[in-house]
């Protein structure tokens, strides 16, 4: 059981603050007797689209074996990648002596920059009841996605997802679990399968997969609370 837990909730691109608070409260209740430290990072659509940045100073002082990251949606993967880069992982410089963490929960991620899934994700993240703001932003994003596909530009989501399978970030004695769904309209289960297979091929420690049948994006605990909590509670 970890002594310190960093629960990193990120509502950008499909996961709302209200949704992720359900999981944060669950972690607090489960670990209250250990008195862990919690770090919850929220970000929005502007953080996802802005240049990569991060501050890992609050993380590097901890023993990696005592840190649990809970990454929500593609926005969470983005922030995780930024923190890894800030700590010197995956850069051209010397590799840090220790990984960023050894335990990782990947929730409704990672996805790809496909048109339909990205539009649904951003549509849910933008403010409701404000069409003057919402529809121009959706139009701009739609144009960008079309240009990206036509010109064959690299997929930024695929690039940031590489940090999750970087041996210098988690190490080969790590453990991870993917929570995903066949009915997720934002992150397709095939994308998660592909990423998990890569982790297996690289022998990046223990790789577990929890595939749900009907749950929506970042809503797997609603379909089967006991299954989710039982998996999280395992060492």
From TrEMBL:
InterPro entries: DUF829_TMEM53. The keyword Transmembrane applies. It comes from Aspergillus pseudoustus. It is a single-pass membrane protein. It is found in: Endomembrane system; Nucleus membrane. Keywords: Membrane, Nucleus, Transmembrane, Transmembrane helix. This is Uncharacterized protein.
């Amino acid at each position: 059981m970890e002594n310190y837990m960093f629960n990193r909730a990120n509502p950008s691109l499909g996961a709302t603050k209200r949704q992720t608070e359900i999981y944060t409260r669950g972690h607090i209740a489960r670990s209250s007797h250990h008195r862990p430290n919690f770090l919850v990072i929220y970000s929005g659509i502007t953080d996802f689209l802005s240049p990569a940045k991060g501050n890992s100073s609050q993380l590097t002082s901890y023993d990696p074996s005592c840190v649990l990251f809970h990454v929500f949606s593609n926005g969470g993967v983005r922030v995780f990648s930024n923190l890894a880069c800030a700590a010197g992982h995956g850069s051209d410089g010397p590799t840090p002596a220790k990984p960023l963490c050894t335990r990782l929960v990947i929730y409704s991620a990672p996805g790809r920059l496909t048109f339909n899934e990205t539009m649904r994700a951003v549509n849910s993240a933008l403010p409701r009841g404000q069409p003057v703001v919402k529809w121009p932003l959706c139009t701009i994003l739609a144009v960008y996605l079309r240009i990206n596909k036509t010109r064959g530009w690299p997929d930024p989501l695929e690039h940031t997802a590489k940090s999750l399978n970087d041996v210098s970030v988690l190490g080969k004695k790590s453990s991870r679990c993917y929570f995903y769904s066949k009915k997720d309209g934002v992150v397709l289960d095939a994308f998660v399968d592909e990423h998990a297979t890569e982790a297996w091929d690289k022998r990046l420690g223990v790789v577990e997969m929890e595939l749900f049948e009907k749950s929506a994006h970042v809503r797997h605990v609603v379909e089967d609370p006991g299954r989710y909590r039982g998996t999280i509670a395992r060492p």
